[in-house]
UniProtKB/TrEMBL annotation:
PANTHER family the record matches: INORGANIC TRIPHOSPHATASE
Pfam families: CYTH (PF01928)
UniProt name for this protein: CYTH domain-containing protein
InterPro entries in the record: CYTH-like_dom_sf, CYTH_domain, YgiF
Gene3D superfamilies attached to this UniProt entry: Hypothetical Protein Pfu-838710-001
Residue ranges annotated for the CYTH domain, each copy included: 15-215
Domain of life the protein comes from: Bacteria
Length: 463
């Protein structure tokens, strides 16, 4: 049984919420509503006020749980608990309980059932829960039927409010009511041809915790650059890379404060790593969508790096900000991200897709294309794709060895320097010439040192 959140009913048993969350620009609302009216049946409109509960230090959030009371109308209230779930290419699956209430007060007794306690985080007492923040938004609802499948689509616009501070909400959610989850991807891709819709894993609750300064670290444990390529778990490694990509991309495109250099470079590195991993196994490479995401994404990285490097009111930053806004309004990039998410979901849910059985990212394998032309080894090693491959090396030695550490840290720093140099040179027309020269000289000197070190390491790989 699947959750149907806008119906007044006793849904106190555990359900599974299967949904895809998408973000869009507020000025696209009318176009999106029109696209939905053509395809789906418009439902009701509601004003929803929500209060989220947690411990003072956000212990529930750290365990990926959310507890809220929602007011729907004058006298209708509902208490909802969502616990740790999974994300497959951006399609979220979570455990969920919904209980109707007579008033807007937390009922801790509902959390004491054996079923709930089986998923409740250890060490958190219901007595320590308190209201932390609120969300208020207007919701428009549609039902889209396709064959035997039925999907509820809701468009939410409003605010997250915390102690006098607030941030806007503008998102679309597609939730499966019955049928095949694959239709969610098909519907999202159809809508994205008209309005840029960006995959978003950031829930309303997480936005509130971020505003409180209690946001949990979303980065996956066992980062692929730390553990090396694991062919037995390649689908999971691809999923971890994709989560990094889509969350970093949302921050780069939408968040007002300039992102950090680490985030911008990390986005580019994980994007290149995703395609590197996907192409290692022939069966994956054959079904991987033909997409044009790398070059536009590296250009976006350049614009974001410029925002972190220069004073915020300078002409170069204004130029970069304009470019970022233009990319955010391009349906093609959003469509590409959806296609990759759909492909990854199919890879993870298919029982017929074989697990990879071959291949390693070894130094000999990486150097093979330039073995016959050592004069061009430096240029070969410094290509962004090659640097990411060096960061994924696995020569059968302990990944914590000094050699692996030196190779990976050198390649990672060199990648960052190259991306920064590309960004600065791309925006040269809007830069002061002397400022441009000084920044390039500093980075070029370090780039040459790292390039020389990487060549030396490649000539004496681990025994």
């Amino acid at each position: 049984m699947l959750a149907q959140p806008d119906e007044r009913h006793d849904n106190s048993g555990m359900t599974y919420e299967i949904e895809l969350k998408l973000r869009f620009a507020p000025d696209k609302t009318a176009a999106l509503q029109q696209a939905l009216d053509v395809r789906a049946t418009r439902g009701g409109h509601s004003t929803l006020n929500n209060t989220y509960f947690d411990t003072e230090d956000g212990a529930l959030s750290r365990q990926a749980c959310a507890l809220r009371i929602r007011q729907k109308g004058e006298t209708a209230f509902e208490q909802t608990l969502k616990t740790l779930g999974s994300s497959q290419g951006g399609l979220a699956v979570r455990h969920e309980w919904n209980w109707p209430l007579d008033q807007g007060q937390l009922d801790a007794s509902l959390l004491a059932s054996d079923e709930v306690l089986g998923h409740w985080p250890d060490g958190i007492s219901a007595d320590s829960l308190m209201p932390l923040f609120n969300t208020h938004f207007e919701r428009q609802r549609w039902i889209w039927q396709l064959g035997q499948s039925e999907v509820e689509i809701v468009l939410d616009q409003g605010l997250v409010q915390v102690q006098g501070a607030e941030i806007p909400l503008c998102e679309l959610e597609l939730e499966l009511l019955q049928g095949d989850p694959a239709v969610i991807w098909w519907m999202a891709e159809a809508l994205c041809t008209e309005v840029p819709l960006w995959i978003s894993d950031i829930s309303k609750a997480e936005r509130g915790y971020r505003l409180l300064g209690l946001g949990r670290d979303w980065q996956q444990q066992g980062d692929v650059f730390e553990v090396g390529v694991d062919f037995a778990n390649l689908p999971d490694q691809l999923n971890n890379c994709f989560e990094w990509i889509k969350r970093a991309l949302e921050t780069l495109l939408w968040e007002a404060p300039p992102p950090t250099t680490q985030l911008a470079v990390g986005f580019a590195a994980h994007l290149l790593a995703f395609f590197t991993l996907a192409r290692l196994e022939p069966s994956y490479r054959q079904c991987l969508p033909t997409v044009t995401l790398v070059n536009p994404s590296l250009a976006l990285t350049s614009a974001c790096l410029v925002r972190t490097e220069f004073a915020q009111q300078s002409p170069v930053v204004q130029c970069a900000a304009t470019h970022i806004a233009e990319w955010r309004d391009q349906p093609m990039l959003a469509q590409t991200l959806l296609k990759l998410g759909h492909w990854l979901w199919q890879l993870q849910t298919s029982t017929s897709t074989p697990l990879p059985q071959q291949g390693k990212m070894t130094s000999n394998r990486l150097l093979a294309p330039c073995q016959g032309d050592p004069e061009h080894r430096e240029a070969w090693l410094e290509q962004p794709q090659r640097l990411v491959e060096w960061m994924l090396l696995d020569d059968g030695q302990a990944l914590a060895s000094r050699w692996h550490h030196d190779v990976r840290t050198s390649a990672a720093e060199l990648l960052g320097l190259q991306l920064e140099l590309t960004a600065i040179r791309h925006y040269t027309p809007t830069l002061n010439r002397e400022d441009w020269r000084q920044r390039c000289q500093q980075r070029d000197a370090r780039r040459l040192q790292l390039s020389s070190l990487l060549i030396q390491l490649s000539e004496r790989p681990p025994v």
